Design the sequence.
């Protein structure tokens, strides 16, 4: 999401906060859906662009893949990229390695958010075919060479990420953009367990995502195949890679109509007025209801309405959040989605002085946030828990949780001022803190 200003990241050595924490190892869950459904997802991910435009040919790299970093990368990029490349080799079976000199198949250039915003206002980061630098992208962005629709194979791509953002946002960009550089170009709101979804709930590659990438680089497929040719190969291919999926029955899945996608983008994207955002969120909710959705898309519609209305009508907002949680409770694949909603319902409980209720909601969400490697969400939940513990008469436990949250907050929010702003925001919810200096 574009930001109005570009803050300066504080130097770690000058910080008075605890050291930044990092997640030790990934914990991806295996896909739990039918291979028939996954095959349909694979085709939609590979043969459509986010705009809805159809692609005629399947494309991937046909040689071992090299990756090079240029620009002004912050210190956190190197270890996060090493971890991601290791996962791609281990979990997706992709022959990929980092190089430090010469040309590379994929160039990751770290530039400022202001430059990214000027190029594509609605994007936090992006990937472009047949370029190796931001200057080349700006020069050739309207030429056929940068058009995904005319690509027949992949040989050279550029990924552009912000250097002046939090470590987590940079890592999230690496995961999604490198995955799209290697494989799927589309995002699907219907997916509950994937980074290939513009709801931005999942921030690191999931077990489903790694299966999609492993299938993308399976020997049965090659660049230049048509959708029909790929579709014919998928049943046997997925049976080999994901045998458990052959035993699961397919479930009906409805496509996501363009008017719902457009409404979501208006409600959450840049440039719309508050009135336009509210109208767009209402449209998304009505569309979800009319289509009879019972999945995370219906929940997301309520979540948007809750966020948009909570300042003007907090009780109505809570009704939307509760409705979202009701839909999310029906699918174990949406526990992370529910953890996001809990940050809103628990904050309301704290604001009304009900620390016990806040703790009941927060505690189950903490493990999910940690398992999903979402430091921003984890630290937010921990800061909320600290206020709830204060409300319930456990100040020593509150101090311990609050202190423990700060290392995660430094990874999730970045600069000291951003971490302290989040601390002040959550502390202000607690009625015991109101009126203090």
Sequence:
């Amino acid at each position: 999401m574009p930001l109005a200003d570009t803050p300066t990241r504080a130097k770690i050595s000058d910080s008075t906060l605890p050291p930044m924490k990092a997640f030790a190892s990934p914990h991806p869950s295996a896909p739990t859906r039918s291979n028939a459904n996954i095959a349909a997802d694979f085709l939609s991910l590979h043969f459509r662009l986010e705009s809805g435009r159809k692609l005629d040919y399947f494309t991937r790299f046909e040689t071992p893949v090299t990756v090079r970093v240029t620009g002004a990368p912050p210190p956190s990029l190197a270890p996060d990229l090493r971890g991601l490349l290791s996962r791609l080799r281990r979990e997706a079976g992709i022959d990929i390695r980092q190089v430090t000199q010469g040309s590379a198949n994929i160039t990751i250039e770290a530039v400022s958010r202001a430059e990214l915003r000027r190029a594509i206002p609605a994007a936090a980061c992006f990937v472009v075919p047949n370029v190796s630098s931001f200057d080349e992208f700006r020069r050739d962005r309207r030429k056929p060479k940068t058009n995904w629709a005319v690509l027949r194979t992949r040989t050279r791509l550029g990924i552009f990420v912000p250097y002046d953002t939090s470590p987590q946002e940079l890592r999230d960009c690496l995961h999604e953009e490198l995955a799209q550089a290697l494989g799927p170009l589309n995002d699907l709101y219907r997916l509950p367990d994937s980074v290939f979804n513009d709801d931005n709930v999942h921030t690191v590659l999931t077990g489903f995502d790694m299966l999609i990438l492993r299938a993308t680089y399976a020997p049965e497929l090659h660049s230049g195949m048509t959708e029909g040719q790929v579709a014919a190969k998928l049943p046997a291919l997925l049976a080999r890679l994901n045998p458990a999926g052959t035993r699961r029955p397919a479930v009906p899945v409805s496509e996501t109509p363009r008017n719902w996608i457009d409404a979501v983008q208006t409600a959450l994207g840049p440039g719309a007025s508050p009135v336009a955002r509210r109208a767009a969120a209402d449209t998304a909710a009505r569309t979800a209801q009319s289509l009879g959705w019972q999945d995370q898309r219906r929940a997301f519609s309520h979540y948007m309405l809750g966020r948009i209305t909570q300042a003007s009508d907090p009780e109505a907002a809570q009704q939307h959040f509760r409705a979202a949680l009701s839909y999310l409770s029906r699918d174990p694949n949406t526990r992370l989605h529910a953890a996001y909603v809990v940050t809103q319902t628990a904050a309301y409980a704290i604001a009304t002085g009900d620390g016990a209720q806040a703790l009941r909601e927060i505690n189950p969400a903490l493990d999910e946030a940690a398992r999903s490697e979402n430091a921003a969400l984890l630290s937010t939940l921990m800061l909320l828990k600290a206020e709830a513990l204060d409300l319930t008469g456990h100040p020593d436990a509150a101090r311990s949780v609050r202190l423990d949250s700060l290392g995660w907050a430094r990874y999730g929010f970045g600069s000291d001022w951003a971490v302290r702003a989040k601390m002040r925001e959550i502390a202000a919810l607690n009625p015991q803190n109101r009126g203090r200096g």
Summary: The radius of gyration is 22 Å.
